[in-house]
Amino acid sequence: MEEQQIHSAPTSAPKDLLSTIPSKQAFWIGFVAAILCLGTLGFIILGSQLMRGGSFNLGTGAKAAPIVVDQGNDDSEPAPTGAVPAVSDEDHILGDKNAPVTIIEYSDFECPFCGQFHPTMQQVMKEYPTQVRWIFRHFPLSFHPNAQPSANASECAAEQGKFWEFADQMFANQKGLNDEFYKKVAGDLKLNMNQFNTCLTSGKYKDKVATQAQEGGAAGVSGTPGSFVIGKDGSAVPIRGALPFESVKAAIDAALAK
């Protein structure tokens, strides 16, 4: 009889424990546990989506803005793109305006990878002087405090026909970007300083810079540099990041062969 009591004691213990918890308290314990489980599941789903670079519906018909970054060499599969805005007289064009291949670059003067990519594009223009035209558009990243002001300054220089010379100096001196430096470069380029200073302090081209960035994002640009090689047939091949010359050359040759 004593042995039977020893074996039966453990089976009754859980029932005694549960019976000591008031029903209201048990409800809230279960409720909190369910919330924690759902929160953990949501966190896992959110984390996996962000790791894939996805976006989420915000419940208002809009989508979350893509994460924008400085891009180094990115060999991942290019993301699908929307329509790349056509080249117009408002663009900065280097090379033969009637060249069969167009490279449109969305860039940020403060982005270090854009600084690395700039010599690559200069080499492209030396190798393909009549076959490629280079279009430069602005895509200032929000975490680069000097990106938007330097973009505006470059447009002020463009008013006097010195965009490309000014841009070269911005990329060559990325750590020194400020109003004093912009004015120095403008002076070195022998610009009309009254006109340049008025343009600079007014932020005259803020809207133009913002519009180009928005259009670039709509076309699929999610970081800088973000470029497109556009062939004779109008097809656009994205180039993500500061790819080396040989990679860009391959894309150009493929576009020329179409």
Please explain how this structure is put together.
- The structure is a single chain.
- The protein is α/β, with parallel strands linked by helices.
- It has 2 domains: 2-51; 69-257, Glutaredoxin (3-Layer(aba) Sandwich), CATH 3.40.30.10.
- It has 9 helices and 7 strands, in the order ααβββαβαααααβββα.
- It has helices spanning 2-19, 23-51, 112-127, 147-158, 163-172, 179-188, 193-202, 206-218, 245-257; strands at 69-70, 92-95, 101-107, 132-138, 223-224, 226-230, 236-240.
- The protein has a 5-stranded mixed β-sheet. Strands 1-5 form a two-stranded parallel sheet.
- Helix 4 packs antiparallel against helix 5 (163-172), helix 4 runs antiparallel to helix 7 and helix 6 (179-188) runs antiparallel to helix 7.
- The chain is globular and about 85 Å long.
- Mean pLDDT is 81; it is low at 1-15, 45-68 and 75-80.
Strand order of the largest sheet: 2-4-3-6-7
Number of helices: 9
Provide mean pLDDT, rounded.
81
Kindly provide the radius of gyration, computed on alpha-carbon positions and rounded to a whole number of angstroms: 29 Å
Strand element count = 7
The outline comes out as: globular
Any guess at the CATH architecture of the largest domain?
3-Layer(aba) Sandwich
Please name the CATH topology of the largest domain. Answer: Glutaredoxin
The top-level CATH class of the largest domain is Alpha Beta
For CATH, the homologous superfamily of the largest domain is named as Glutaredoxin
Low-pLDDT residue intervals, each spanning 5 or more residues: 1-15, 45-68, 75-80
- What percent strand? 5-15%
Largest sheet, in brief, is: 5 strands, mixed
Q: What is the helical fraction, as a range of percent?
A: 40-55%
